[in-house]
Each structure stands twice: as C-alpha cells, then as structure tokens.
Design a protein that fits this description.
The chain has 77 residues and is mostly helical. It has one domain. The longest helix is centred in the C-terminal third of the chain and has 17 residues.
Length: 77
C-alpha cells in the first residue's frame, strides 16, 4: 500500500484485492489498546473497499484518510 502514489492506482485489480487485508489492522489496533497504546485514529476500511469493489468514485478526502491512517498506525508498529 505504501507504493500507491494516487487514488487512481487503487482501482487496479491487484491493488484493490489487497485492501481487505486491512482487517488485520483492526486487530492490531485492539491489541495496542490493551497494551496501553490507544491509537487515536480510526478508518472504516470496509466501506472504502466496497466503494472500490463496486468501482464507485472515492473522494480525495477518503484517500487522504486512508493514507493518514496507514501512516499513523505504522508508527505504532
């Protein structure tokens, strides 16, 4: 995901199929919270994925939120 430069690349089949893997981040966030490291950011990856899967337009703000979420969460990992 870190190699995606713009949101148009998300519509590429191989990239689009990686997005459901974000469900594992939900588990990481939960475990970080149990360890006393609450992550102050949430992202609804499922809704985002369904927009891509249905080939609907993803607003720029949604793409920015995805990038921000991945960036913030990576600092905890």
């Amino acid at each position: 995901m870190s190699k995606i430069a713009n949101k148009e690349e998300l519509y590429i089949y191989k990239t689009r199929e990686v997005i459901p893997e974000l469900r594992y981040l939900d588990g990481i966030v939960k475990h970080l919270g149990k360890l006393g490291y609450p992550v102050p950011i949430h992202f609804d990856w499922y809704h985002f994925y369904m927009q891509l899967y249905d080939e609907k337009y993803v607003p720029n703000i949604a793409f920015s939120e995805l990038v921000n979420y991945l960036h913030k969460l990576s600092s905890y990992c």
